[in-house]
Design a protein that fits this description.
It is a single chain. The protein is an alpha+beta fold. The protein is built from six helices and three strands; from the N terminus they run ααβααββαα. A hairpin with a 2-residue loop joins strand 2 and strand 3. Helix 1 runs antiparallel to helix 4.
């Protein structure tokens, strides 16, 4: 179980992957849609999606000849929000403010 948690947190440690998760929070999307939404190249987006799939954070669905990516579980959004809340509280104690959008986009 610790190894699984390590894999998830490692996958979530990249800001680009957090942006992908945010982009998938409303609906499943193709690699091209995700690339456009997060402003990354298609190959870089595919690289990050592979890491997110390995960690079990996203899943791939195939419809005809198209592949779509979806969050594997909505709980991941709660987890990201809780991490942000934890970080925000710690930062606010130090007198620094950082919005959720800044954390996700950094």
């Amino acid at each position: 179980m610790i190894c699984d948690a390590h894999d998830v947190f490692k996958a979530l440690s990249d800001p680009n992957r957090l942006r992908i998760i945010q982009g998938l929070s409303t609906r499943c999307q193709s690699v091209n849609e995700i690339s456009e939404t997060v402003g990354m190249s298609q190959p870089l987006t595919s690289h990050h999606l592979k890491a997110l799939r390995r960690a079990g954070i996203v899943r791939q669905e195939i419809f005809a000849t198209s592949r779509y990516y979806c969050l594997s579980n909505e709980i991941i959004l709660d987890m990201v929000r809780l991490c942000h809340e934890f970080i925000s509280r710690d930062i606010s104690k130090k007198g620094i403010y950082c919005s959720e959008q800044e954390v996700i986009q950094q």
